[in-house]
Amino acid sequence: MNTNLQVINASAGSGKTTLLVKKYLYLILQKNNPFVFRGILAITFTNKAAQEMKQRVTEALTLIAEENYEQEQVLKDLKNELKLTHTEFTERGKLVLEAILHNYSDLAISTIDAFVYRLIKTFSKDLNLPANFEVNLNQDDVLKECIDILVEKASTNAKIAEYLTDYIKNNLEEESSWRIEKQLLKFSQILVNSESKPQLEKLTKIKFEQILVIQQACKKIVEDYYNDLNEKAKHILEFLKQNNIQVNDISGKSNSFAVALQKIINDQNILPNTIIKASTAEKLYSPSASKEIKALLEEIKNDIQAKLIDLLNFFEVRDDDFNVASTLWKNIYQTGLLGELQQTLQNQKREKNFLLISDFNALVSEALTQEDAPFIYLRTGEKFNHIFIDEFQDTSTTQWSNMLPLVENSLSDGNSVFLVGDVKQSIYRWRGSESEQLANFPNPPKSLPKHLQTEKHLQLKNFFNGLEILDTNYRSVENIVSFNNQVFELLSKKINPNFNSFFEGYIQKPNKKGKLGYLEFNILPEENYHETQLEELAKVVARKIELNNKPKDILILTRGNDVVAEITAFLTDKNIPVISSEGLLLKNSPKVCLLMALLNYQYQKGQNTQVNATLWYWVQKNNLEISFDLTDLESNHLQLIFPNQNIEKLATKSVFELLETFAFWLGFYENEDAFISAFFNTAIEYFSKHSDGYNAFADWWNDNKNKLAVETPGEANAVSVMTIHKAKGLQFDCVILPFFNFKTFGGRYTNWVELDEEKFGISNPYLPISSSNAKALNHIEEYEAEKAKNFLDALNLLYVALTRPKKELFIFTKNSKRDGSSVAYINNLLNYAIEQIEGPKAINSEKYIWGEEFEYQKDKTPELNLKTSINYTPWREKIKISTSKARFKNRAMAKGERFHEIMAHIINIESLEKISSKFNLTAAEKDKIQWVVNHPDLKPSFAPEVNVIAEIHILTPEGKKYIPDRFTTNGNETFLIDYKTGEFQKKYETQLNQYAETLQKMGFKNITKQLVFTETEDVYLVN
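The structure corresponding to this sequence follows.
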């Protein structure tokens, strides 16, 4: 194997992880030294990927050590490449495995953030950091706290109070919310963006006084612009009026330059094409104008066009300043508070002794400029000889620049560096990743600071032998691979020429030839698109489950979290088992929302519009008849919603008791779902640590509802719904892509504008603007570059989505033009592609299929679907005063319960003696047990060869719970027994038939059903 620099572009499904593990195993088994692994650093992008690689390394070593690797071709190839005998190979495997397991903390396979954290911990003293600092992973919570502190300062700081007051007044004038916290939180994300640190250092030094200077400059530029623009437009219209020229006399009439001038006067800062065209037009008059007007317009045409050209010159000269001023004005108040927020953030870090994860890379970068790079890395206590970096396309420029000295040092010592990624799967640019780092390797990305673009990258060129490509797909069947090859070969032609290489030449070869696969492409009409999409999606999922797809093998992918939640809720209503992180948020449960609405109503007395709307929804959904308008609720109206309950008692209850009471009244405990269960578990945990106050609980709920979710087992047999970003690296038999009509240009990346000191009164500040405003600011080059990158991001997202399926792919798009002229939405591209590529067969203009749909073999193993159902009565209502009649009834029940418990321990007649002492059986009880186990009709159930399952809990997919008393099977026959102490009732027979029907669905056959009445000693065979 090549021990120098290897850079690999690994397309989806091409065995990247297998290659990484094989390369890693080669290095740790190459020498007869079990501790070689200590000198290898493997960097991954996520914790999950790091754990997977550790697991695969240890599992492979286990197979080698146990001499059980003959079925693994990769390990057999590894042995041959190492040129080891079987004995040498297994012996080394044993020693290395033992060394790793005994020194597991030395196994340096981790995320890059974890590695950098380790570095910072090592030289925290040099960075003036406390040795025991903590890492706060929730940056939003930290920023919210800083904003709250800033707002509180207004009570003691007149300058801040005046500034915030002006900010709020400006929002109200602009018809925005007076609650500025959300605006500040969104804007303050700049503070935790390590890629913007140089500009931030200048920006956060701007004081309030300087902001006022910029404000006044912006105000003057905007006002002067509008005044001068309006004067010029009015001057031209007045000239037309003086010559008695009407709108209908001018070419274009309602779409003429005269109408455009009026729009300008109405405060619309536009440059209509009609003005540009009119400035050079041969004729200005309408065909319907009179001869006199035509002659007049010909006579004054040069004067009109001279005035229009003057107006166009005004746009060209003044429009740039106007756009900068008006754009800055939108965020000027937030910008002015950044310095104060930055100071507050630094104070919080010092006082609470923490760092944000976004601080890590900046700190290492700073340290690298002060010390010799190899020395810094050596201080971790390890000398890393070999370097692995996975998902290289997702590494940020700062992270790569920090790793570069370590990479270069390793190569200089003759060791190996292994970089692997896929430029087509670069979907984390919003986190600072740069796919060009892989596509243009070893040339540095343009966004990298100039002092880091030269020396180290020049040294890399000496070791670089070219980009290797893994072009075989081991994941997907042939039709899926062919479809993706054709789609991206076609769509890559739409990419900006600077990025053509990202998709060109990466055609994959299918490894699973002959297993063709199935593709279904649906184009839905625009009318009722949303509702139609949900219904069609549910039909496809139901169909796949009917064709024996396990729900857990089906994946639904979307672009945004909001759609994930909606799909999850919709499929759940259709009784389709579904799981998703966003869809399982407690706030997405209508029942939880109703409980919180009732709680808020009780304390706010119907003054909250959202509360009223939630209650109104519930009333309509349950067809409750009420005689009042829920938009005007009063306190006594709860009695009308709950007519049989004592509303007055609510005033005496605590917050938790109120939630319990409302849940009981609404029947939520009769068939409690996972959301209600998780909600009350969360509430119990909250009130165990906090006082039972409404305001504090309501605030806590509002702050945390976006992350409180139902916890589910990882192996739940349910359809997965997730975003494309979360699905990266995953694979499923069947993948469904609904709502595939997202924009190809919609990112909000931060650009920086350097202000002109002469115009804005302040020297050299950089102010942030979103990429969508770059065009308006006449930064056309930056805008077009950003637009091209956005388009590439969209294609990368599409690539990740289309390469998740192993066997089947279903796509739903919205109807649109199919001629390839529009690329604004992803459905424009897909609808165009489906008609161009070979393979898919058009059923009609809205549906295409390719291949044959799979019908999977039914899984014969009975599966238990978990569904919680708790019959609940408030604990106060469980307290009863015992009476003599009740005591008599309870004795009979106790006798029956004891008999059931004893029989649950009886396997066969031999079990009697074993449990006799345990239960201290009476003679009468022994006789009764002997009668049961020796009864001729019951004897087969107590035979020695049967498998006994006593009082098993069976949960049905509908949430019902069955507990048969005795259930045995010998493989061919099944015996079902239920013990009764009273007399025969028809319902006992019905109950036993329900048990049997459920067992049949679980795969048990030839079921004998028997009712045993212990008091009368009768046995009934149930048909």
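The first helix runs from residue 16 to 30.
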